[in-house]
């Protein structure tokens, strides 16, 4: 689930240094039966170009690891096969490569399932099986995969160093349980199995740049959640409760809430309008227990003998399930059932893959929705006031109600120079507010608004700016054809249908 | 905030834009008394208050620059040299005898400072008249032994540019010289008369920024006729209006005149006669072109800004020709005095001590630019994005006069504030259930209620509550434990208008 705290978080830099263990490929590379089921995955991919959204990057190649599970499928990391154009898999000791296809991909927890049509690929292999419980600290585990430094299967050994929540770098915003091991995990290990007592208990997936002996693996509960989710043939993802809370450790706060002596819990401070709790919980509600587990003042619950955050219980649920809270509201104890539905949240700003960015070009001005992928292209420009406003928007869109009636923040991302837009080299990276007086709620509002020029001009207004961009509407239409040809652009726009969103 | 972090963000690349280097030949020479004996070394010990723990002071810092004797007992230098000064001393270049100087007035808006000190034996510099691009100048400094070095230079540009240590712009000369300048305040002469003080030197490009005497002379005249009035402002922002489509849209005739008014500042002179979307065709008798330039009688083509800050005083009334609803109309606009304190997020360039209150371990103060900049070069990333955005987008736009943003900079851990101790850099909207929009509100609420026990942070749906009965003991304990000499600093109702920067504060 997405996690945020209501105050300014300091944990961001850690997420930024987490490097995904996927290697760009230029060169190639068990334990008995198991090692036959650990495969190398070759990927040819093209990343989307958020600056010039009508085109993708040149094809690049890379490799990762994966392993065969029951049902003639393979498991790997989502980041190994994201933006893939062509995937091949190869078994240890087999010279053949077999084409594979993504069956399910979960960017929020970095897991993907691949299918291979050629039966020959599975000959002589035995699917790996998952364990049932997580190993404890200091339990010995082994990591199998195809990391850098050689072409053939590699095996490293280590112990479980830590079990904790950590950010998953692939989506840039999600955090889940992570199993940290001190076995060497290197680029190329991504997607490989972590074995304890001959069973898979994790998937190697990320590390920290400039650290030593810290390797992160996706642990069993997260894998189980994913496997259960896809049983119905669709990956829904994690439900979002959408609650920020304060601890009730302060006795004065407890007294002000009228909490009876002996009761404990956390108090709701903010409810996300796109979360499952929206409309059901409200600020000042004290969450006393979740699914029968009593919540401590610091937000922890006892689960399987361990003390974990109460959100771990939400984390283990599927979108079709419900949560049962007992809450303290206005001096009464109430039971609240929260059905966990996957609500589309356009302002979550998760890193996207495998989908072309939307855009619209008019008079050589390129408009595209604000996205994490776009922000990542700004590089050194991030340290400018305009980019800073975008970072603020991404972070506080919901909290500070910057959304208004929008479903997207549409930006002017660039200009394809042409005489029609000679004087329009300003306003880059600013949020489009209206065109010809029509508010722009998302990119699909642009074509309609352009149909109604005011006095022959298209007037583009931007948030927080009092000087509009103005273009002669008649000249714009003529210019567009020339711009398409001149800059070899296949189409003036790519706008997904509302249903697809 | 320190001198350099401020500079690294604000310093602009104006100097680096000069690409044609005129060869001047080696002219550095050691000689004596080629110019009036009017230059002294200014030695400053400065100490700034800590932005996050506003009862504390940072380490004393030493700076050295030059000052120029302009009259018996009076010297000028740059304000950034004397900023946060605890002690100002002067000495003869290369000498060892130091004399204490008094800071008479310093205005960070124009980077000018006036000092008073005994000046027997010196000959006051004569004020020069404005020079134009291409004028030959001489710049003076001294080596360690006190030998005068003079270098020849040439004025290569006259423009409004950003000050080296403040996000504010003034008229500056750009000068090219091969004398490697070591300190601020070096005087520049033209035909033996003072034409400005060096504010900044770019070693690689051999260019320097010179604060012209036109600015300094106005400052001295203003100080000499108290009360000090400061720099005039109109209270608006504007943008060039060059694009033909935009000009047509606003119904302008094709004569390349006029700039677009973007925004007027609440309560300003501009707000009374101008509004967003107006076009300014003429200002104070001068035609304004579509890029905002006019022809200044002294300096040639200059941006409109100088019309206001360089040629007029606060309180002056100027005539403005505005274009509104397809009609040209002449209106009168009263100029105000520049005042940082009217901002929602003041700059506090001069680093005044923040007014603050430590209550139950919670540290409250007003948000200022120098607070954010105290995070160092990465301040935009390191402080709360919401506060950064407030400063970058709304600093000049309070919803009502005197509105400020109260922040909780952090919490000093104590049993009274358990559960809240990780909170920092948050926007405080209410205290004890009452809205707060200035530090005065904070003190008024504290005084009225006998303590602050409920704190509401922006977008939080409930108050942070602390125990009122525990408060007196906790305040004493926290002050003792964290070595807080003064638990609060409140200047009572702060006057609006330019403030002095008194030594010792």
- Gyration radius of chain A, in Å: 25 Å
Alpha-carbon distance between the two ends of chain A: 20 Å
**Total E-strand runs of chain A:** 30
Query: What low-confidence regions of chain A span 5 or more consecutive residues with pLDDT below 50?
Result: 1-19, 24-30
Shape of chain A: flat
Strand content of chain A: 25-35%
User: Which protein chains make the most extensive interface, counting residues with beta carbons within 8 Å of the other chain's beta carbons?
Assistant: A-B, 46 and 49 residues
Radius of gyration of chain B, CA atoms, in whole angstroms: 25 Å
- Figure out the total of helices of chain B: 11
Beta-strand content of chain B: 25-35%
* Main β-sheet description of chain B: 8 strands, antiparallel
The secondary structure category of chain A is alpha+beta
Count of helical regions of chain A:
10
The portion of residues assigned to helices of chain A is 10-25%
Describe this structure in words.
With 501 residues, chain A is an alpha+beta fold. Chain A starts with 11 loop residues before the first helix and ends in a 7-residue tail after the last strand. Chain A is built from 10 helices and 30 strands. The model of chain A is unreliable at 1-19 and 24-30 (pLDDT under 50). Chain A has a 6-stranded antiparallel barrel. Chain B is an alpha+beta fold and 505 residues long. The relative contact order of chain B is 0.12. In chain B, strands 24, 25, 26, 27, 28, 29, 30 and 31 form an 8-stranded antiparallel sheet that branches. Chain B is flat. The two termini of chain B are 17 Å apart. At the A-B interface, α5, β16, α8 and β29 of A face α4, β16, α9 and β30 of B.
């Amino acid at each position: 689930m997405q996690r945020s705290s209501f105050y300014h978080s300091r944990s961001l830099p850690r997420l930024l240094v987490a490097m995904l263990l996927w290697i760009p490929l230029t060169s190639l590379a068990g334990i008995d039966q198991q090692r036959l089921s650990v495969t190398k995955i070759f990927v040819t991919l093209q990343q989307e170009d958020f600056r010039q959204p009508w085109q993708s990057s040149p094809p690049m190649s890379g490799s990762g690891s994966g392993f065969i599970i029951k049902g003639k499928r393979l498991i790997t990391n989502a980041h190994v096969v994201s933006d893939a154009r062509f995937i091949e898999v190869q078994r240890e000791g087999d010279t053949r490569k077999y084409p594979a296809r993504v069956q399910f991909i979960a960017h929020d927890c970095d897991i993907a399932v691949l299918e291979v049509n050629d039966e020959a690929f599975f000959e002589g292999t035995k699917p790996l099986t998952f364990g049932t419980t997580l190993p404890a600290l200091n339990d010995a585990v082994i990591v199998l995969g195809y990391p850098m430094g050689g072409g053939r299967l590699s095996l490293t050994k280590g112990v479980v160093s830590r079990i904790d929540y950590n950010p998953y770098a692939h989506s840039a915003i999600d955090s889940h349980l992570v199993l940290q091991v001190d076995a060497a995990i290197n680029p190329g290990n991504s997607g490989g199995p972590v074995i304890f007592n001959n069973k898979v208990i994790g998937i190697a997936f990320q590390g920290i740049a400039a650290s030593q002996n810290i390797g992160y693996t996706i642990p069993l509960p997260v894998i189980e959640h994913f496997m259960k989710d896809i049983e119905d043939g669709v990956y829904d993802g994690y439900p979002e409760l959408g609650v920020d809370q304060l601890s009730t450790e302060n006795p004065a706060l407890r007294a002000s809430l009228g909490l009876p002596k002996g009761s404990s819990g956390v108090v709701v401070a903010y409810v996300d309008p796109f979360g499952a709790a929206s409309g059901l919980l409200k600020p000042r509600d004290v969450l006393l227990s979740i699914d029968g587990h009593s919540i401590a003042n610091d937000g922890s619950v006892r689960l399987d003998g361990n003390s974990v955050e109460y959100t771990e219980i939400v984390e283990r649920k599927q979108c079709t399930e419900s949560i049962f809270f007992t809450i303290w509201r206005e001096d009464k104890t109430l039971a609240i059932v929260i059905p966990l539905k996957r609500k589309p949240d356009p302002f979550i700003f998760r890193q996207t893959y495998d989908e072309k960015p939307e855009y619209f070009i008019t008079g050589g001005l390129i408009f595209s929705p604000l996205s994490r992928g776009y922000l990542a292209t700004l590089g050194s420009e991030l340290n400018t006031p305009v980019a800073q406003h975008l970072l603020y928007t991404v972070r506080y869109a919901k909290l500070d109600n910057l959304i208004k009636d929008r479903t997207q923040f549409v930006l002017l991302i660039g200009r394809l120079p042409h005489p029609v837009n000679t004087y329009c080299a300003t306003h880059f990276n600013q949020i489009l507010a209206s065109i010809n007086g029509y508010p722009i709620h998302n990119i699909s509002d642009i074509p309609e608004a352009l149909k109604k020029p005011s006095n022959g001009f298209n007037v583009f207004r931007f948030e927080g700016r009092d000087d509009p961009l103005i273009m002669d509407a008649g000249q714009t239409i003529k210019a567009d054809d020339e711009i398409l040809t001149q800059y070899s652009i296949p189409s003036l726009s790519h706008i997904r249908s509302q249903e697809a969103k | 905030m320190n001198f350099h972090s401020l500079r690294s963000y604000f310093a602009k690349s104006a100097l680096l834009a000069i690409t044609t280097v005129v060869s001047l030949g080696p002219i550095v020479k050691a000689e004596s008394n080629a110019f009036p004996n009017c230059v002294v070394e200014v030695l400053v010990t400065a100490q700034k208050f800590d932005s996050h723990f506003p009862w504390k002071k940072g380490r004393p810092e030493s700076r050295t620059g030059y000052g120029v004797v302009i009259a018996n007992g009076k010297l000028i230098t740059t304000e950034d040299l004397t900023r946060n000064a605890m002690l100002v001393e002067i000495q003869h270049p290369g000498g060892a005898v130091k004399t204490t100087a008094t800071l008479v007035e310093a205005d960070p808006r124009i980077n000018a400072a006036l000092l008073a000190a005994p000046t027997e034996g010196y000959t006051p510099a004569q004020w020069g008249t404005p020079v134009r691009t291409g004028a030959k100048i001489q710049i003076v400094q001294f080596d360690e032994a006190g030998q005068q070095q003079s270098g020849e230079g040439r004025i290569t540009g006259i423009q409004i540019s950003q000050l080296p240590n403040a996000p504010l712009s003034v008229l500056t000369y750009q000068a090219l010289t091969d004398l490697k300048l070591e300190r601020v305040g070096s005087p520049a002469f033209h035909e033996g008369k003072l034409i400005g003080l060096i504010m900044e030197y770019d070693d690689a490009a051999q260019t320097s920024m010179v604060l012209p005497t036109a600015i300094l002379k106005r400052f001295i005249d203003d100080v000499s006729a108290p009360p000090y009035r400061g720099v005039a402002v109109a209270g608006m922002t504007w943008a060039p209006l060059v694009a033909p489509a935009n000009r047509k849209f606003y119904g302008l005739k094709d004569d390349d005149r006029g700039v677009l008014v973007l925004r007027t500042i609440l309560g300003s002179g501009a707000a009374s006669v101008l509004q967003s979307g107006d076009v300014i065709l003429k200002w104070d008798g001068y035609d304004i072109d579509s890029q905002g330039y006019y022809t200044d009688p002294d300096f040639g083509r200059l941006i409109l800004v100088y019309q206001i800050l360089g040629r007029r005083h606060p309180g002056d009334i100027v005539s403005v020709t505005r274009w509104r609803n397809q009609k040209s109309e002449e209106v009168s606009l009263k100029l105000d005095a520049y005042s940082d304190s009217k901002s929602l997020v003041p700059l506090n360039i001069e680093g005044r001590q923040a007014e603050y209150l430590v209550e139950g371990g919670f540290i409250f103060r007003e948000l200022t630019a120098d607070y954010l900049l105290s995070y160092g070069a990465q301040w935009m990333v390191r402080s709360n994005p919401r506060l950064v955005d407030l400063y970058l987008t709304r600093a000049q736009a309070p919803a009502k006069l005197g509105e400020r943003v109260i922040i909780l900079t952090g919490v000093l851990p104590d049993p009274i504030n358990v559960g809240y101790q990780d909170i920092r850099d948050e926007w405080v909207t209410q205290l004890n259930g009452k809205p707060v929009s200035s530090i005065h509100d904070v003190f008024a609420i504290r005084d009225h209620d006998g303590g602050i026990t409920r704190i509401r942070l922006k977008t939080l749906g409930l108050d942070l509550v602390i125990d009122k009965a525990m408060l007196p003991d906790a305040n004493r304990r926290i002050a003792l434990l964290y070595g807080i000499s003064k638990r609060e600093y409140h200047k009572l109702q702060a006057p609006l208008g330019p403030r002095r920067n008194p030594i010792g504060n």
